[in-house]
Amino acid sequence: MRILALDLERYGPFTDRTVRFREDARLHVVLGANEAGKSTALAAVTDLLFGIEERTRYAFRHDMPALRLGAEIRAADGRTLRFRRRKGRKNTLVDAADAGLPDDSLAPYLGGLTREVFCRAFGLDSASLRAGAAEMLDAEGELGASLFAAASGLRGYRALQGRLEEEAAGIFMPRAARDRTFYQALTRYEEARKAIRQGELRAGDWRDLNEEIAEAGTRLDAIHAERRRIAGEQARLARLKRVAPLIQAVDAAAEAAARDEAPDQPDLWTDSWTDALGARIAAEAAARAEAERAGAALARAEQDLAALPLDEGLLARAEAVLEAFRGIARHDKDAQDLPRIRAEADALAQNLAQLAARIGLPDAAALKLRQPSDAARTRVAGLVREGRALAAEIARLTRDAAEALPGSDAAAAPAIDPAPLRADLRGLAGLRAEVARRDEIDGTVRREAGLLWLQAGRLDPPVADLAALAQVPLPAPEAIARHRQAFEALERRRERAAERQETARQAAAGTRLRLRLREGAGPLPSPDALARLRAARDALIGAGPGDEAALRRCREAVAAADRAADDLVRDAARAAEQAADRIRLEAETEEMAAAERDLAAIAAARSEAESAWQAAWAPAGLSAAPPAEMAAWLAEVQTLLDALASVETQSIEQRRLAERVEAARRPLAALAARAGLDLLPGLDPGLMLARIEERVAALGEAWERAREAEGRARAAAEQAARRAADLAEARVRETVWREAWNLAVPAIGLDGAAGPDEADSALAAWAAVPAALAALEHQQRRIAGLSRDMEAYRAEADTLVAALGPDLAGLPATAAMKALHDRLGAAQERRARRTDLASRCREAAEALAAAEAARGAAASALADHLGERSEGPAEDPAALHARLTARRALRLELESRRADLARIADGVAEAELRADLSGTSPDAIEAALRGLALEEEALDQRGKAAFADRDRAERRRADLEGGTGAELALAQRKAAEAELAGEARRWAVLRLAGLLIGTAIGRQRAGQQDPLLARAGALFSGLTGGAFAGLAQDYDAGDEPRLTGRRASGELVPVDGLSEGTRDQLYLALRLAYLEDYAGRAEPAPFVGDDLFLTFDDARTAHGLEALAAIGGQVQPILFTHHRHVADLARARLGAAVDVLEL
């Protein structure tokens, strides 16, 4: 379909504007400057074909209902249609008289295109061109992806496909994983089924459960009683350990206080009297030290004051000396600058002399008299620029005229017209898709079958033959769940028995340790030993009188029995504890043996369960893993079996497509003969179609090359005539310039024979003269002023030196003034110091008087305080104060120790604490605490085991009493079933979406590869100016086809090896080749480019224009641009083949 005329009746800024496209043109260039309406005309093409958008941006001049567009279009078969498009929601197509047209009137001309497809596939701008090239780079030049991107105009589909596959993999994969949502829902489903089975209640289980709770409660009560006993004993021993050091400290403090007690006037020597004594002693010492310091300060101040003389004459003229000193820097700078300024003035005078010589004048005075005006210099400068521009223009026009001589490069038209062959190919358009579908399904079947067998071999246990496994009965998921529950129940029983065994073992170890500790503290009497001693005593007494030895043995037996009875009474508590621990040890040993027997019974039951589990899998010939793993294995096997059925279905479809493709062999052979193509016998119909399309494309290229050569020859002749006329006009302008030149140059001292370069040199010299003259006069004025200032300063300095420092008369003025300034500073500093010293003398005298008075008052107060002692010998005040302070410290320490003891004794009297400590030692306390800690640790382990048993049983009983366990588990199972269904649906949608994108890319690769690549290679060669001979495909390490550029030398360059501009040209070549291919199969729409070559240089732009014109025979290319040089390039390269329209 071609647009013959575009009517912009009321649209954007346009009113009743018609743009006509020349029918015989192979390229239309619409040129519009900024704000000329180029973007509006570009949008008008889309709105014309597919309707004006509801919220259009182009109703800023005309009201929405008044918007109108019109056009005349022609189909490939010659049909034409004249219509108009109005703004609205329906019935928007009308004819010239505003009579309604059917909404599908444009369907035969658009071929089923939608607005989005038209904008993506038949519209292209510079940004989309660059983005499409970047998409090819991201796909690493993969052949199918590159063709798909160029054909559809879509971008980001690779990343979209990756995201879809990644999201689908997060839901389900054949191998189970915890992070996949499908298997998370499956796990919840299995746990709910397990909970339903566990929710069943039996009478025997209920009785056993209650007995287990009661037994655990009894064990806990006994443990709590034992804990209370241990806690009381630990508290007593810890208290004794805590107070023992404090009691020793109290005794030591009391002894020291008793040694220091003295009866001297205890009623007067109170703490307050002692503190007052210390304060008066300190005050008297501080006053005495202050008086001594004040006297020394007064003496130093008087001595310093006498040592400082003053120069009154110098101080009187201080301001004059300071002013002269401030002028030193200015005088020195003037003296330093004066030689430099004189040298600069000499250089300026010399520069003026050189300028006069360059211009041709005798001296600087002549320069000042002969300066040309600014207007004269400006006129000469303008003539210089104009002359040079004319010379360059004449040279360029002369060169262009020589190059533009018309040649004879027109070639004869080809003998075969490709149009009938293209028409026949359209009838076979569906064959390519069927071939691609056949090949795709064949590859899919082979790939998925291999993948299925590979996945089956990777299972654990592996499956050698999926088809055979499908015929073998396998355990149902319910049976697997029952076995899994049986194994889990046995494992729980084993854990409880092992826990009982470990608890009993630890308790027995603690009991043995206590027994050893008691036995290590000394022999422990027992009732049995006492009974044996008494029996021996009674036997000796019952034997009657005997000799002396028998009497002695009788007395010894009586004494031994009495001692044993006394020991048994004294250590009754230890003996009872020892007997209790022996009984406890026997019970704990029996508990360990019972747990060991339970473990053996559980092991035998597990062995039987394992045998039954393996027997369930025996028909399949598999060595079964644990039930949890086999449940996942069974799910994976079922998935593989479902996939195997899908592969069989695809194989049937592949055979059907192969038969349909083979039926097209005879029509293809006839078409190849008409195209002059000799095909190999037995060639695949898909390859036959590709060879025929390639042959038709080559015939079309030859036909187009001949037409282009004819247009170029005609355009070259027209251009040569234009350039000859331009050259004659330039020479006339050169004559006029020469006359103006002869009149202007004498003003700057030259004659008419001088050229522009000489005039430039003279103008440059004259331009420097005014500034040089002004600079010279400025420097001369500065020299006079500096000399005057320096003489005045030296006269003033000599006057001051003669009056204040005659000894400095031989020095330079600045040196003498620096010396006078130093003397003045020293004199001012001495005067300031004298004033400060006089003030210090007054202050020191006043401080000395005040210090003497304070010392007398402090001594009097100390004597009065000591006079309060009416008796006793005289004593040094400082020694008395030290003795009284030490006595008070001992008393306070004793009180503090007793208070600390009362605070940590837990309310126990000191006498009771001393009684408890008198009967034991620190080592015995530590040993007893250690033994109690071991007992408490053993009790803790036993308590944890008993509490865990009771808690587990009580929670089980609460679940059973609540009666909601099975119902809740049923609801959870139903929720898991719904979640499984939802996740399966979501996975299917994501998986199908990813497969659709992959299938589209695969079809593009398989169905249009050879003919499309051949045509795209020819266009790419033209776009690159012959730098590349065409395109080819190569294969990477993964055997994936990759798109490459083939240089003229045969070298293959991958996409990532191309420059950015060359990748843009490659994408454009693929897009144009696709459009040309589409035109051979369906009714094509116009191709609309918007400033397509914005990033191209002139050479690449020219090649791009030729490429657009190359497809102009099948597709109508329309290029919108606001760059005039693009239109000029199109005229120069294409001549009459281009239609340039200006808005």
Name the average pLDDT.
77
- Could you name the ranges where pLDDT drops below 50 across 5 or more consecutive residues? 407-413
Q: Beta-sheet strand percentage? A: 5-15%
The largest beta-sheet arranges its strands as 2-1-4-5-6
Largest beta-sheet characterization: 5 strands, antiparallel
Instruction: Sum up the overall morphology in one term.
Output: flat
Total beta strand runs = 13
Domain YhaN AAA: 1-206
Coiled coil: 480-507, 585-612
Pfam families: AAA_27 (PF13514)
Keywords: Coiled coil
Topology record:
Layout: E1 2-11, E2 14-20, E3 27-31, H1 38-50, E4 68-74, E5 80-86, E6 93-94, H2 107-110, H3 115-121, E7 123-125, H4 126-138, H5 143-152, H6 157-171, H7 181-198, H8 203-259, H9 271-306, H10 312-316, H11 318-359, H12 364-369, H13 374-403, H14 418-427, H15 429-458, H16 466-470, H17 477-520, H18 527-542, H19 548-570, H20 572-616, H21 627-662, H22 665-674, H23 685-744, H24 756-804, H25 813-866, H26 877-904, H27 910-918, H28 922-962, H29 965-1007, H30 1009-1023, E8 1028-1035, E9 1041-1047, E10 1052-1054, H31 1060-1079, E11 1087-1090, H32 1098-1110, E12 1117-1121, H33 1124-1134, E13 1138-1142
Parallel strand pairs: 3-12, 3-13, 7-11, 11-12
Antiparallel strand pairs: 1-2, 1-4, 4-5, 5-6, 8-9, 9-10
Helix pairs in contact: 4-31, 5-29, 5-31, 6-29, 7-29, 8-26, 8-27, 8-28, 9-25, 9-26, 11-24, 11-25, 13-23, 13-24, 14-23, 15-21, 15-29, 17-20, 17-21, 17-28, 18-19, 22-23, 23-30, 23-33, 24-25, 30-31, 30-32, 32-33
Protein name: Chromosome segregation protein SMC
Organism: Methylobacterium radiodurans
Coiled coil: 480-507, 585-612
